[in-house]
Amino acid sequence: MDSEQQARLARLPTPQALDDTLLERCRLVVVDLETSGLNVNRDRILSVGAVVVENGSIDLGSQYECTLFQENHRVTESVLIHGIAPSEVARGVAPADALLDFMAFADNGVFVAFHAAFDQRMLQRGLRQTLNTRLRHVFLDVAELAPMLYPEVTGRKTLDDWQDYFQLRNSQRHHAAADALATAEILLILLSRARAQGIATLAELNSRLRHWRRLRQARIGSL
Asked: How many degrees, rounded to 5, is the angle at CA 206 between CA 175 and CA 131?
């Protein structure tokens, strides 16, 4: 990491905590990563797509999309899914610069993703390896929020499942920017549902999530 990258890293703001900030007033950065595979300890980030939800709407003027250069990237089964060819990766942005640009775009926002644990761990590892820094931003998982807020809907587990349920279209599945936008559209529906249930702040949403997880674990443990 050179001196300019160090300076940019030092200028990144303190991330938003899950506090009493109103949901409609916080910056929610909906992110999707396309990777070389699903092994969080070995595979690498190939593409980042993100869109901002703020003031109750998707800010289409505030989107991020980038393909990362990764040395010796080869055709794998994942390429057949996301379609990012080795030639495209070879023309990509250096990982340190790409991730710095992305973190600057994210600003102090709360990250949101579908099956967020995977994106969180991949981003965490990417930041550590390329910039020797920790990921401090918190993540919310739409794959948890959706069943929590719509308990009457059963059997829906994937992004496609919830898109079908809410009658949303996504013609470019497994494309980072398109999947981020699809997740953001679902998030807007979930935020509206949360408000209807009296959830107004990040802290209240997090508290409800913790309670929902405990109930889910108790049900699983009783089986």
From this structure: 50
- Structure confidence by residue, pLDDT tens digits, 92-129: 999 999 999 999 999 999 999 999 999 999 999 999 99
Contact 158, 202 (CB under 8 A): no
Contacts of 180 (CB under 8 A, 6+ apart): 30, 31, 32, 49, 50, 51, 63
Domains of the chain: 24-147+154-222 (3.30.420.10)
- Conformational region of residue 155, where left means phi above 0, alpha means psi within -120 to 50, and beta covers everything else: left
CB of 144 closer than 8 Å to CB of 117: no
Question: What's the pLDDT tens digit per position in 55-79?
Answer: 999 999 999 999 999 987 776 666 6
pTM > 0.90: yes or no: yes
